[in-house]
Structure formats: C-alpha cells, structure tokens
Specification:
Helices cover 31% and strands 30% of the residues. It is an alpha+beta fold. The chain has one domain (13-130): Heat Shock Protein 90, CATH 3.30.565. Residues 20-87 form the Histidine kinase/HSP90-like ATPase domain. It holds the Pfam family HATPase_c_2.
C-alpha cells in the first residue's frame, strides 16, 4: 500500500529510479515525473506543478544528503493519482525544513498532499497529486 493514497498497488504500477544526489541529475527525475503524469492524462499545468514540486523536494533533500549519496525516487501510479517518494541518506543530526518554511508552502501548494519523515539516517519526502481534470 502507498503511504499517502491508501490504495493497493502492484509492481506494475511502480517506477523506481536511483540517481546520484547531485543537482545535475534532477532533470532525469523531472522528466520521469512529467512522463508519468502525462500517462495519467494530467493537464499541462498540473504536470508543470508536479515537476516543480519534485524539483523542490529533491532540493530540500540534497541540502541534507550525506556525501556520495544517491537519491531513490519511487513513482506509484494509480488510476487518478501519482505519488512520488524521494529518499536520501542524510548527514547525522540534520533535519528537514519545518512545515512552516517557504519550501513546504511550495510543496503543499503544488500537490494534493505532502509528507516527510526522517528515520534511521534516511529522509523521505512523499508527494501525492490527484488529477483534477476529468478524462
């Protein structure tokens, strides 16, 4: 089950990408996000909002990533939603920005919902976007 949707998924509904935790590789994740959102027939503005949200989430994680880390990105596709979970190993003692920060305001404005966790030296940001437009 996915963390935010509560809907069951199968392995066919999941895309997993791992890239170096370096800003130069974020284009790969933005492109994958746009492609999967287009597959769900999201409107162009919804696709762009999601690309920006994924970029912002990754930027938040890159700021606290341990040296030589990799970003793990898991895309879960359901009938009308796309969940993106980005995880990175962190430097000990670091924290994600507060939910009152500007970065979190961006994430919550551009997605249906956003959540974060930091457990056992790994930080994860989860973004859920439901398609607003009809088929």
């Amino acid at each position: 089950m996915t963390q935010l949707t509560g809907q069951p998924t199968t392995d066919d509904d999941v895309v997993h990408l791992t890239v170096p935790a370096d800003g130069g590789y974020l284009g790969v994740l933005r492109t994958a996000t746009a492609g999967l959102a287009a597959r769900l027939q999201f409107a162009l503005d919804e696709i762009e909002d999601l690309r920006i949200a994924v970029d912002e989430a990754c930027a938040m994680l890159l700021a606290i990533a341990s040296r030589g880390a990799e970003l793990d990105c898991r895309f879960t596709v359901t009938e009308d939603a796309l969940t993106v979970e980005v995880t990175v190993p962190t430097v000990p003692g670091t924290k994600l920005p507060a939910e009152s920060s500007f970065a979190w305001k961006v994430l919550t404005a551009l997605t249906t919902s956003a959540a974060a966790s930091a457990v056992d030296g790994r930080a994860t940001i989860s973004l859920l976007t439901r398609r607003a437009s009809g088929w």
